[in-house]
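I am still getting used to backbone structure tokens and would like to learn alongside you. Would you supply a protein for us yourself, any chain you care to pick? Start from the sequence, derive the backbone structure tokens from it, and show both lines together. Go ahead whenever you are ready, and we will take it from there.
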Amino acid sequence: MAAVEGVRAWPRPVVLACGTLLLAGCYYAAGRLGLSQQLSADGAVATPIWPASGVAVAALLLFGPWCVPGIALGVLLTVLRLGNPGAAALGIVVGNTAAPVLAHLLLRAVGFRVSLSRLRDGLALVFLGALTATLVSSGMGVGMLLWSDEIPTGHLGLVWLAWWVGDAMGVVLVTPLLLLMYRARLPPPSVRWAEALGLAVVVCVLVPLITYSSVSVLFLVYPLLIWSVLRFQLAGGMSCALLASVLATVAARQGAGSFGRLTEIEAMMELQAFNGTLGLTALLLSAVISEQLHTRRSVEGACHELVEALQHLNAGGPPGPGGSGGDVR
């Protein structure tokens, strides 16, 4: 018999170091992607969507506190990429690391489920993970920039609002998709594949036309979003919302479509309002429909068990006429 040699697992420190570097690289890549679509309004620069915040929150929800060093390293690399290292950069690193940690703690405290199968999960992610926790990163970041005289006092409110909304939209739009991708399993071939392909083609064709139209028709995205959510829940809704938000951001940065007639501040405000309402609608509507489907399946399962129990009771009932359960001759 040939000897079988056991395969030794890698030492835990090596696994943690590799995971930290991988997460830092993912955060840095997401940060570079967000920085590539900066908007300028009255001299202030902002990113309408900061996907790195969504990456950080998703990593903490899936893998736990060991992700904190990777997040901090990714934030540091992103800040160094912007230049001007110093006390302000250190404050930004602390704030952008503390915000997703706070989001993780708040979501765990309320019993958040990564499946996002309940309305309360969607509400918790929006109001605790996105809108509340990102107050830390935006407040500390803008405060450090103001302290180092990198932004004028007159731009304080605009920069803070843009920073806060950008971080929050990263959590609302990116985190659900990452959570979904982590637990996704390829379904068997069915008729729904054809519908999914058709929906993808329609969305990819119509959304660019809508966002780049010179007429303000951004509201036409919502019928496509509702179709995506009704048929494919979180996967369809968040994919459609993210695509529309990214294309709208690109159009606003280029001054194209309905954004071309607006001032810089008006374009930023309209874009942030559009991205915010789109992300909230997709996430909360998906959670509502998923919860209803889960409830219906639970009711159907309970009815099926009840029918089986009644059939079992009838099968073991009292004997019929003649002293036996058989036919009377």
Notes: Residues 191-311 form one domain. The chain has a mean pLDDT of 84.
